[in-house]
Amino acid sequence: MERKSQLTLWYWVALIGLLVGMQYYLIDSHAATIPYSDFKTLLAAGKVREATVGQSTIAAQVDLTGAKDLLPASEYQRLLALPPGTGGAQMRRVVTDRVDDPQLTQQLEAAHVRYSGAAESPWLRMLVGWVVPIGLIALLWVWMMRRGMGAGTGLMTGVGQSRAKLYVESKTAVRFADVAGIDEAKQELEEVVQFLRNPERFRGLGGKIPKGVLIVGAPGTGKTLLAKAVAGEAGVPFLSISGSEFVEMFVGVGAARVRDLFAQAQQRAPCIIFIDELDALGKARGVSGLGGNDEREQTLNQLLVQMDGFDSQSGVIILAATNRPEILDPALLRPGRFDRHVAIDRPDIKGREAILKVHAKNVLLSPEVDLGVVAAKTPGFAGADLANIVNEAALHAARENKKAVEPKDFDEAIDRVIAGLEKRNRVMNPKEKETVAYHEAGHALVAENRAHADRVSKISIIPRGIGALGYTQQLPTEDRYLLKRSELLDRLDVLLGGRVAEELVYGDVSTGAQDDLQRATDMARHMITQYGMSERLGQVTFDTTRPPAFLSVPQAPQPVSYSEETARIIDEEVGRLIKDAHERVAKTLTEQRGTLEALARLLLAQEVVDRTALDGLLSGHQKTDPEHPTAAAQPQREVAAASSLLPRARSAG
């Protein structure tokens, strides 16, 4: 709730409290109403001490000492329950309706009662007791209705106004130096900064700056941070709002907020309007007879009109960010609206190192920490992920009471982010633990016997996260953007290494390979349906579903555009790839059975086997296979890229 609304509410609370207080004292809630006959009885017994005679009522102070026999028992107990009046513990204040009694004054004087008269106004009592409360309730109701329902009719103050947060130059402390790993995107936005700083330079040549810049990228890649850096570098006001804040349940609110936002921007020009999560507002319009999205579409139409209606030379630049550009309305993306599209990809190894340096500026690092090595262990991580890695490493060092963050803390942070929290207290029976050890040993051994597989960095049988009972960590030699068929086949072999090791050792299989089989099946199907890697089907793709570019969201199944015979061949080809990989892996592990047993025993003894221990074991047990050279026979490759954790041996179900 806004501060202005809070103050208004407190004003109403204070007025109602004042009204209650007035009624409290005017109506006199400390007095009890008694029959006139009981009042005359107490007066005759000398129990009345003071009286105020009004036109319709008589208020009196009575002494209940010895008055138990003068009043009915229930009446006496009711009076005793009242708060004591002035003059003693037994004094009570009572009120009775006045009766036309000519002898009342004489009886009061005979009893030596101190009495006085009071002029009463029945209109005042009615005003305070009924008219004022009803009037206040009516005013409060009208005020609430105006705030809640007046957007479309102009009766409401505030709901139709933009909720954009305004950051002035002093508050926008982000600069381009705080943004790392996306140098190309920064260069794209340098023109916007130069225009806002020196617009005459462009106007003199007749150039027009783009009206809108759309920043697209995966979550956590720094889209919002980059927009704030543009405002910080330009030194202009920055109006920030989320796309979801435009749309309300009341018709007309979103369009009113769009108009108010652009009006504020024109008043503060030059400035920047930043709309985060544009897909919440700019989703493509469709033909529907249900009318469920009328308000959102009206808001989008108003945004399109406003972008057409203002002059880009006025110094107002619109920045927007989204991670789902494929669902935006085409009218938003045409030239004249969002002219320039800036794509932010996940950073490469150099970009990750630069991002880590930015986030580690305020962290006390040990001299042994090499952020380049940490960057090599985090392929595919976005900026937000790397910031989380640095924070988790610092927290781990603090838990261990260290004076600085060490490389081991970063390793633990990477494992925790990828595979989950370590569960050393999870109880596993010895047979299950042995199965997991052979499973992970199978993955590692097959990876070491494939020329195109990533190099194994660490093997663990310590449970992590919710379902991972073990994992094998591999270090790619470099960031990869293309994979050849031979490389995919080697990766397929590594995925099946755990299941085949279980078959070879126990003659049986467990549910632990469910995740491996899912990934292997998906990889094989992609090879056939997307990459054209089937000799029987040729250079044809069959997958009609186009996944989002930056966001992994479930896609509705699309109708197939091929025959049942083709579908049968696809299934056969996928099965063939899996079967051939199974045979290759079985041959490798059979030849390396002694090494498999030794590695499993080492895992059972240590739970975690690093690269050094693995090299020692391989050099002592594994012989070179001419067809599949082992890691011991391969030349040492420089570790310049990052770890890919393969969570293995998931629990049953």
The strand line-up of the biggest sheet is 6-8-9-10-7-11
Radius of gyration: 40 Å
| Structural class by helix and strand composition | alpha/beta
What kind of sheet is the major sheet?
A: 6 strands, mixed
Low-confidence stretches: 149-157, 288-292, 622-653
What is the β-strand count? 15
Continuous helix count:
21
Termini separation: 46 Å
Q: What layout of secondary structure does this protein have?
A:
Layout: H1 3-27, E1 32-33, H2 36-44, E2 48-54, E3 57-63, H3 73-80, E4 91-97, H4 104-110, E5 114-118, H5 122-149, E6 165-167, H6 183-197, H7 199-203, E7 212-217, H8 223-234, E8 238-242, H9 253-267, E9 271-276, H10 294-309, E10 316-322, H11 330-333, E11 338-344, H12 349-359, H13 371-376, H14 383-399, H15 407-419, H16 430-448, E12 455-460, E13 468-475, H17 485-506, H18 514-529, H19 564-591, H20 593-606, E14 608-610, H21 611-621, E15 644-650
Parallel strand pairs: 1-4, 2-5, 7-10, 7-11, 8-9, 9-10
Antiparallel strand pairs: 2-3, 3-4, 6-8, 12-13, 12-14, 13-15
Helix pairs in contact: 1-5, 6-8, 9-10, 12-14, 14-15, 16-17, 16-20, 17-18, 17-19, 18-19, 20-21
List keywords for this structure.
653 residues; alpha/beta; Signal recognition particle alu RNA binding heterodimer, srp9/1; Rossmann fold; Helicase, Ruva Protein, domain 3; 4 domains; 15 strands; 13% strand
